[in-house]
Known about the structure:
The chain is α+β, with helices and mostly antiparallel strands. It has helices at about 10-25, 35-50, 60-65, 70, 90-95, 115-130, 150-155, 200-205, 225-230, 235-240, 250-255, 280-285, 290-295, 305-320, 325-330, 340-355, and strands at about 30, 75-85, 105, 135-140, 160, 165, 175-180, 210-215, 215, 245.
Amino acid sequence: MPDISTYATGQDLKDALRIQAHAIGFTHFGVTDVSIESDATHLTDWLAEGRHGTMAWMARNHEKRIAPGALVPGTVCVISVGLDYGRDPDAAWDNLRDSERAYVARYALGRDYHKLMRNRLQKLADWLAGELGPLGHRVFVDSAPVLERALARNAGLGWIGKHTCLIDAEGGSWFFLGELFVDIALPVDPPATAHCGTCVRCIDICPTQAIIAPWQLDARRCISYLTIEHEGAIAEEFREAIGNRIFGCDDCQLICPWNKFAQRSDEPDFRVRNNLDQATLSELFQWSEDEFLARTEGSAIRRSGHQRWRRNIAVALGNAETSADVLATLNSAKEDPDVLVREHVLWALGRHAQRAR
């Protein structure tokens, strides 16, 4: 077992760990135990109602997802960390209002955060092992069956809002999460208390009404799910509501009053790549598969794949203001060899034809 005798108290060790976490670059830090019973019930019910859609991985390893101690036997505490990626909300709203520009969720404009977070968490683990000796630990960044928002809330990083995102009263919701499971006992932080009050702005603004009740998200209606996780055709009932959102959706966070306190981030890895905050739909639709793969190397956008990328942009082009450029882009693909892309292109052309009548 690790030897903590070099520190007078567990709190002294935790304080030193917090300082080290911030020195490494994390902006949020907290410690909790492995108890998440109420959240386990919520997840079980959510899965039983089929609200995870085709995300079968959400149902796999369920017994480990609802019991962190079962995922990593010997775990005593979970160190939860966050890293800000906040951006200018006014620029995001401007982007959404310009129907010929593509909207990409703010978290995906730069490099994929997973590797950066994992590397920093491993540095934190290495530092801790250097202080205490051999340490039983595992690092997670959205990479295993972990209820990270529940653990982060219990560690005091923020409360789970009615849109199901984590909110910090001092920093809003624009931050990534990661966890370090350890086999040592540390003083735990008090859980964050909820401060949404009677506000339902996130529910009201959701374009597809995916937030069916406070803290109840139906992923099957969510634009992030539809544009990233969902394979095959997007149901026509959702296409118009998707607007120009081609990868993810931020509306529920953009409208949240607590994000007026969000911290702006200039983390080099999170700086915009490929001009994605300004690019037009037509520009991005022209990317060949080779160009898509080259431009999205190290990006979360790779997850959608080239086919779904073009499917999503075809939907957005159907929602754009009719222009010569938009029509030329769509007409260039009306006989696209990819059946899925072609279906959405023809739908988009039909939308413009209806407007012209």
